[in-house]
Design a protein that fits this description.
The protein contains one helix and ten strands; from the N terminus they run E-E-E-E-H-E-E-E-E-E-E. It is mostly beta strands. A hairpin with a 5-residue loop joins strand 5 (57-60) and strand 6 (66-70).
């Protein structure tokens, strides 16, 4: 199953390039996207680290040895330590789902925490 909510849109994000925004107010636990991914094996993942895709991939699989490139808007959600959305990976269906974590105001940018953990340090400087 693949799903992209009609109220989402891509816009310029302050200091972050493109971002995903909601045109309407959303309640917590609202599904906003289910996107297919392209799964890459560990060898292909090594190549990602040497390319621009390094900033857009997700670790993948139960052992986290593979990677995946999200289609749809998945790779364009920007990071926030205290994000208003969260992502859920389905390794069997090869999809990533995005849900709101909190209430979201209309015209707000949607953020995910790239580490899925508010306490874990990131590999880049947050803007």
């Amino acid at each position: 199953m693949y799903f992209l909510a009609p109220f989402l849109e891509l816009r310029k994000s302050k200091k972050r390039g493109l971002g995903v925004f909601s045109k309407i107010a959303l309640k917590a636990n609202t599904l906003v996207e289910i996107s297919p991914v392209i799964e890459l094996n560990s060898k292909d993942t090594e190549y990602i680290h040497q390319s621009k895709l390094h900033d857009y991939y997700f670790t993948w699989g139960e052992d986290q040895e593979s990677s995946a490139i999200g289609l749809g808007y998945i790779s364009l959600y920007n990071h926030a330590q205290k994000a208003n959305c969260f992502h859920s990976c389905d390794f069997e269906a090869n999809t990533i789902s995005i849900y709101t974590k909190t209430e979201v105001e209309a015209d707000a940018e949607l953020f995910i925490n790239y580490n899925m953990d508010e306490e874990k340090e990131l590999w880049f400087d947050v803007l």
